[in-house]
Specification:
This protein is mainly β. The protein is about 10% helix and about 40% strand. The protein has two helices and five strands; from the N terminus they run E-E-H-H-E-E-E. The chain has a five-stranded mixed β-sheet. Strand 3 and strand 4 form a beta hairpin.
Length: about 80
């Protein structure tokens, strides 16, 4: 994921592009480096499938493991 916006206070916004479907992105621990990137619970992730569908989905970070993965749930 790429950090799009990080306000002084509040939640950050991330962008992510992959051939993976929204359901896969919403899988437990999908972002294995989420903690290292600075993802926090409540952050928003806009995901785009880069295959022929270019489907978009919005997710909310629901868990971050210290030193590890971030899990996002589907918001839409």
């Amino acid at each position: 994921p790429v950090l799009i916006s990080q306000p002084i206070a509040g939640k950050s916004i991330w962008g992510y592009t992959s051939t993976d479907a929204a359901a896969a992105v919403a899988g437990a621990g999908y972002f294995t480096n989420g903690h290292a990137l600075g993802m926090k619970v409540g952050d928003v992730v806009f995901s785009t499938e880069s295959d022929n569908s270019y489907a978009g989905s919005t997710h909310i970070v629901t868990a971050v493991t210290v030193g590890g993965a971030a899990t996002v749930g589907s918001a839409t």
